[in-house]
Amino acid sequence: xxxxxxxLLINNPVTLHEVKKNDKKFRFSFIEQTLNSSGKFISTTxxxxxxxxxxxxxxxxxxxxxxxxxxxxxxxxxxxxxxxxQLILSFLIFLLVAFSKLRLRxxxxxxxxxxxxxxxxxxxxxxFNWITPGKxxxxxxKSGCSFNFWIYHVPNSLYISYxxxxxxxxxxxxxxxxxxLSLLIIxxxxxxxxxxxASRLKAPAIFLLIITLSHKLIFIFTKVLEDSFLGLKSRxxxxxxENASRQIVGNRFLLVFNxxxxxxxxxxxxxxxxxFNGTIEHGYQKQLNRLDILFLLLFIVVLSTAVTIxxxxxxx
Length: 316
Prior knowledge:
This protein is flat. The strands form two sheets. Strands 1-4 form a two-stranded antiparallel sheet. A two-stranded antiparallel ribbon has the order 2-3. By secondary structure, it is mainly alpha-helical. The chain has helices at about 30-50, 65-80, 85-100, 105-120, 160-185, 190-200, 205-235, 240-275, 290-310, and strands spanning about 135-140, 145-150, 150-155, 155-160. The protein has two domains: about 25-50 and about 190-275, no CATH class; about 65-190, no CATH class.
């Protein structure tokens, strides 16, 4: 029997307040945002499935080769400390995206959004001289005394240093290249092929099983959530107060939780009925051909050359 969280069993009475016709409030803002978010997730998943079927250069490669490219590529990007070589890698990744026939605008919009979250925001303190002392590039604050903030010593003048810009830019480009390469492999390889390739590379079976079932659960939950909210929105033919809409949506989560769990349970039972016993079978796998081996070797040679030159000559 499904164990329902206690907070979903709380029954909150909802009072509907009709909004006046001349009120310029956004209609169904909370419902619209939920529908848009869940719809974007589903459309992104479907687009990744279709983009893996495009007739691009990476789509023709074996999934094992692409997974090895991801592992070798992220390691090489982390070892290259030269901004110039990182920019060259960015250009090469851009060429791979273009030759894979992906939508450049939507692809890099997603990449830059992740770079902003995981690259730019965490590295903002590095720009300032109280983290990275050096030659001033832009003076911000000049006070008569210095002080200590948490574990940092803030000097009497606060400015952005050239050394801070260099160090932060180097980290941000590394994050950009790593995310771009990762999303490129994901967009050019179907999810089931990634799991099979990881299994062939001797990844732990329990790890792959958790990833597969989690992916199923998230997709089912998102689809049930979108269907439930779309049906709820279609019954509201008048404008209502936004606070009331939030209460109604909150109460609907019990139904969404039950539906998701029931459909997920039915999916698992269907897997058992088709012979699933806890192990992941490879099934049909593409064999490595000459193109796969040559492309992988070329990728490793280019990356190894960049790492060697960057570290031997200490290019930063």
